[in-house]
Write a sequence for this structure.
C-alpha cells in the first residue's frame, strides 16, 4: 500500500475546485490505513466521508433529472368548484400549512411532469387528509390511486379513513394486504408491501402514495414505480411520499435530493398538546399511579414497545407480550388490550374497535396507530 503500487494507479475524480483543501484521494487512502499522527486520520476521514456523501448526492440528482424527463401525458384538470365542495365536506377546516402544501401539489399536477414530492409533517398534522384530497383529484381525472402503508394496521386505518372521506363522492376504496385482498373494480387501493405483487391489476394508475416512506427501501419504491403498466392515460404516475419523521435540511438535500419537499408545520386547532417525559425506574410506581388516576377520570393509556417478544440481543427493549403481562398485574381491575403484527387481521380490527369504543383502558402495541380519524 504505497504511491508506487496499486494506489499509484488511482486517479482523483474530484476536480481541484471541488476538492479545495481536502487531501488528494491517493494520500487519503494511504493515511487512513497508515497514519503517522491523529491529524492524518481526521483529514483522511474528511476526504473519504465527503466522497461517500458526494456520490449519494450525485445519485439523487441523477435520479431527479431522469424523473423530470418522464412526462405525464395529460396534465391534471383541477375543477375549483368540485375541489371547494370536497373541502367543505370535511369535518374540519384545513390549516394554513395544509392549504400551502395542497397548492404546491396542485401546481405539480398541472405541470405535465410526473410529481415526485415528499410530504413531511408530525403525526396528527393532517397528511392523510392531503392524501385524500389528491386521491380525489386523481379520481376526477379518470385515474386510480395506490396507497402503500408499512404495516397492515396502518393500511386498515387509512382504508377506513379514506372510505369515510371519499365514499359519499362515489369513490370506491379497496384493501390489498397479505391477509385481505378486496381491490377489484375500485378507484383507490390501500395496501402494504402486497401492492408490489404482480397479481394486483394496476392499470391506469395516476397516483402512488407511500406512507412512512423511510420504512420502504429504494428498491421497493422503484419496483412499485416500474411495474406499473402503461395505461390509456398514464405513462408514469405521480408519486407522493409521506413521513412523520423530522428530516434535517442537510439530510433531505443529500438523501432525498431527488424529491421536492413540502412541510406541514402547523397542527390543526383544538389538537391536544403532547407532553413527553422521561420517567426513571425509581419513579415507575408513581407513573403507574398517574396512569390509573387519568383512566379513572375517563382517559385511556397507550403503551408502545419496539418488540413483540423479548430479545436476547436487544436486552433493554421492552417486548409487547412481556409488558402486557406485567401491566395486567399492575392494573388488575382495568381492561388491557394487546396489538402487534403477528395477530390476524380480524384480531387487530377487534382490538382497535374495542379501544375506540373505550372497552379497553390500556392498549399495549408495537407500533403507533391513530385510533381516531
Amino acid at each position: 500500500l504505497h504511491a508506487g503500487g496499486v494506489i499509484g494507479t488511482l486517479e482523483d475524480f474530484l476536480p481541484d475546485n471541488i476538492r479545495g483543501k481536502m487531501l488528494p484521494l491517493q494520500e487519503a487512502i494511504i493515511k487512513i490505513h497508515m497514519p503517522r499522527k491523529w491529524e492524518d486520520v481526521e483529514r483522511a476521514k474528511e476526504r473519504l466521508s465527503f466522497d461517500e456523501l458526494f456520490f449519494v448526492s450525485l445519485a439523487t440528482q441523477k435520479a431527479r433529472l431522469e424523473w423530470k424527463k418522464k412526462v405525464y401525458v395529460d396534465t391534471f384538470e383541477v375543477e375549483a368548484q368540485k375541489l371547494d365542495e370536497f373541502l367543505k365536506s370535511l369535518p374540519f377546516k384545513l390549516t394554513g400549512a395544509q392549504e400551502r402544501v395542497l397548492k404546491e401539489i396542485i401546481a405539480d399536477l398541472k405541470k405535465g411532469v410526473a410529481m415526485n414530492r415528499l410530504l413531511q409533517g408530525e403525526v396528527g398534522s393532517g397528511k392523510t387528509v392531503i392524501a385524500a384530497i389528491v386521491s380525489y383529484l386523481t379520481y376526477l381525472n379518470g385515474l386510480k390511486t395506490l396507497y402503500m402503508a408499512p404495516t397492515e394496521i396502518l393500511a386498515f386505518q387509512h382504508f377506513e379513513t379514506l372510505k369515510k372521506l371519499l365514499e359519499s363522492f362515489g369513490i370506491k376504496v379497496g384493501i390489498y394486504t397479505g391477509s385481505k385482498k378486496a381491490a377489484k373494480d375500485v378507484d383507490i387501493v390501500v395496501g402494504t408491501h402486497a401492492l408490489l405483487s404482480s397479481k394486483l391489476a394496476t392499470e391506469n394508475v395516476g397516483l402512488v402514495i407511500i406512507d412512512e416512506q423511510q420504512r420502504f427501501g429504494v428498491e421497493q419504491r422503484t419496483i412499485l414505480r416500474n411495474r406499473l403498466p402503461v395505461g390509456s392515460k398514464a405513462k408514469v404516475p405521480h408519486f407522493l411520499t409521506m413521513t412523520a419523521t423530522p428530516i434535517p435540511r442537510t439530510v433531505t438535500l443529500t438523501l432525498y435530493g431527488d424529491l421536492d419537499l413540502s412541510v406541514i408545520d402547523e397542527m390543526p386547532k383544538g389538537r391536544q398538546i403532547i407532553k413527553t417525559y422521561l420517567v426513571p425506574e425509581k419513579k415507575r410506581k408513581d407513573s403507574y399511579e398517574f396512569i390509573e388516576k387519568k383512566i379513572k377520570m375517563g382517559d385511556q393509556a397507550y403503551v408502545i414497545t419496539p418488540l413483540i417478544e423479548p430479545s436476547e440481543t436487544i436486552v433493554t427493549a421492552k417486548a409487547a407480550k412481556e409488558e402486557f403481562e406485567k401491566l395486567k398485574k399492575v392494573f388488575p381491575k382495568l381492561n388491557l388490550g394487546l396489538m402487534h403484527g403477528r395477530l390476524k387481521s380480524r384480531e387487530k380490527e377487534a382490538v382497535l374497535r374495542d379501544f375506540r369504543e373505550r372497552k379497553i383502558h390500556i392498549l399495549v402495541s408495537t407500533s403507533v396507530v391513530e385510533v381516531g380519524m
Observations:
- The first helix runs from residue 16 to 19.
- The first strand starts at residue 116 and ends at 121.
